[in-house]
Amino acid sequence: MDGAAPLARFAAEEIGWPGSPVLRDVSLSLRTGERIVILGRSGAGKSTLLGAIRQRLEEAGQTVALVPQEHGLVPQLSVHHNVYMGRLDAHGTLYNLANLLWPFARERARTAPWIDTVGLSGLERRAVETLSGGQRQRTALARALFRGGEVLLADEPVSAVDPAQGAGLLDALGARFPTLVLALHDRDAALRVATRIIGLREGRVMLDAAPDALGPDDLAMLYAA
Amino acid sequence: MRPETIGAHVTRKHVLVGFAALTLLALALADIRLLATQPWETLAQMGRGLIRPDFAEPVAMARAAGITVAFALCGVFLGAATGLLLAPFYHRRLVRHLCIAVRAVHELFWALLLLQVTGLSPATGVLAIALPYAGIFAKVFAETMDEVDPTPLSALPARTGTVSALLFGRLPQARRDMLSYTLYRIECGLRSAAVLGFIGLPTLGFLLEGYFLQGTYGAAAAVFFVYLALILPLRIWMRWPLAPVYLVASLWMLGQIRTPPMGDGVLWRFFTQDIVPAPLRDGGWLAPAGWTEFAGWFASLGWEQILPGIAVTLVLSQLALALAAGSALIGFPLLVRRVAGRGGAMLGHLALVLSRSVPDYMLAFVLLQVTGPSMLPAILALGVHNGAIIAHLMGRRSELLSRSLRDDAPRGLTLWGYELVPRQFGVFLALCLYRWEIIVRDSAIFGLIGVATLGFHVDAAIQQLRIDRALVLLLAMGGLTLLIDTVSERLRKALRLAAVPETTPRGAVAAR
């Protein structure tokens, strides 16, 4: 879809807190259909960049689905409720309240396929706090899948599951969202999923290219001490 | 003066020396005489009553017990529901000040005021508990909801409605704390309901007072045991799934109370006549003479009742706080196994639970029979009750602390002196400062047993049907509580004490 207006655009901008930017001189535009993976050492500013993209997209009125690094789940609520929270903005308060007290069969039926996609079928009524770390992460993914929309922004979305399952989950995300922006630490997964890789180092975008244009040295440079 | 500026100069040493000096001054001013002619005789009679309780009137006792629970549950649930509705708006100044105002007045005084309007009816008892508790619930619920983990909120879709965000993002996380706080409040509600009997509502306190005044200590002891049998196993019988059942039963129980009829239009009269200062009534406010008279009325009230009342309140609360602090510091290690041993810790728990469960007013009433009418029973009751609460919180922390210490840490009193007290002294000071404002507020109620605090003058004014005076005195009482609250907060800031000591239940620390 080259040529269409970008979903979000940064032109030589500073990102972070006023006075103490985390990233400098960021120029990039995000287009529909792209699969961007952000790479970099921890603390390089991946989450900050994701946050800035989210803000830009929401200001433009895009529907954005999120998988934050800390998941942002409510531990006391059930898997169904946490997944349903992905679409709280689609209903009025009374409807949300009613579904909180006594989940509607209709809403259960809507969330169930996505809970199934992430492999949590049968756990819909379990409180998230009783789940394992991997299961919690799957719940956060199901919430994003249920929400749907133009763009998925995910911060280490498969860090707590094994690589084979992670690959399946990333494929499910790719099937659901036209556009993906993922922060990953797994380079192999990144090369498999991405149509474009953005590498961060020392507060700057050091790398912005398609994966097949990259050699192993390019990625190693991002992580070198 | 801003807190930051005193912060630079005030140290713990200053506060402790000042506190000791104030305590000595209060001791010199206080009336702590033992006025009774035969205190040991009375004490022995009470002891005999405790050993041989007399359950001769089981129906009356069961009924009073039921009504006590009914008042407590209806009052607490109504207060909690109102507080829950107010909590999201607690950051608004108007709501916050309204809540501070309603909780600055003790349940007993709410009841005395309500008696003028709703008479000896269930509404009086329920509202007397629900009104101040609503103010407390609003504050605590608002704080609980502010303190939840914010990450789920930041993960919500951008255009989620405020109420939906509250319902899904905050309430579920806060729910557990809010329920455990409500349970703690039910315990307080039982104490309040029992004490409401002393002003005529048909709860256990009413029976207790009657038996006491007749000198039938066996029957009084029986009532006391019934009360303990309700409040000690509260956490066993009060199960949330059963709450609706209890609530319906309570409402039915309250429906059974026969209420003496009130005259027509009392509410109207209360607001248009009774609470209007006497010189301004009946068109007085239209004439300049009315206002001149009002100025004199107000000045004499201030000189003759408000200022002396405040002085007595401060003296009483200073001594009670000193007693509470001292007994807590000595008493808390009784709860720690490494200090008191396993058996000692169990006995310590029992003693502290008993002193916490008996309302300070009830304790003072009993002591009054022994010591005679001086300030002594009020000081002892306030000091023991609040000391037990501080000791309980300190003891729980210490038990955890003593398990995390190195293996060669000392035991016994050496542990107390070298590890437990120094490590927790900041917490101890914070707890004392919190209890200070509660003690000041509660000291008013000992006016009802003759200590000339502000509450004494309120009670007298209400007896004389001078509700206008009572209202001004109650406002003064609220102002004093607010002042102590501010001073206590500034001292905590100046001493850099934790805003809320980490020990839960939060309520036991922060709430009144």
TrEMBL record, chain A:
GO terms for cellular component: plasma membrane. Coiled coil: none annotated. GO terms for molecular function: ATP binding; ATP hydrolysis activity; transmembrane transporter activity. InterPro entries: AAA+_ATPase, ABC_transporter-like_ATP-bd, ABC_transpr_LolD-like, P-loop_NTPase. It comes from the Bacteria. Keywords: ATP-binding, Nucleotide-binding. Residues 8-224 form the ABC transporter domain. PANTHER family: FE(3+) IONS IMPORT ATP-BINDING PROTEIN FBPC, IMPORT ATP-BINDING PROTEIN. This is Phosphonate transport system ATP-binding protein. It comes from Tranquillimonas rosea. The lineage of its organism: Bacteria, Pseudomonadati, Pseudomonadota, Alphaproteobacteria, Rhodobacterales.
TrEMBL record, chain B:
The keyword Cell membrane applies. InterPro entries: MetI-like, MetI-like_sf. It is a multi-pass membrane protein. GO terms for cellular component: plasma membrane. It comes from the Bacteria. Residues 61-238 form the ABC transmembrane type-1 domain. It is found in: Cell membrane. The chain crosses the membrane at residues 64-87, 108-131, 190-208, 214-233, 306-335, 374-394, 438-458, 470-487. Keywords: Cell membrane, Membrane, Transmembrane, Transmembrane helix, Transport. The keyword Thylakoid does not apply. Its main location: membrane. GO terms for biological process: transmembrane transport. PANTHER family: ABC TRANSPORT SYSTEM PERMEASE PROTEIN P69, PHOSPHONATES TRANSPORT SYSTEM PERMEASE PROTEIN. This is Phosphonate transport system permease protein.
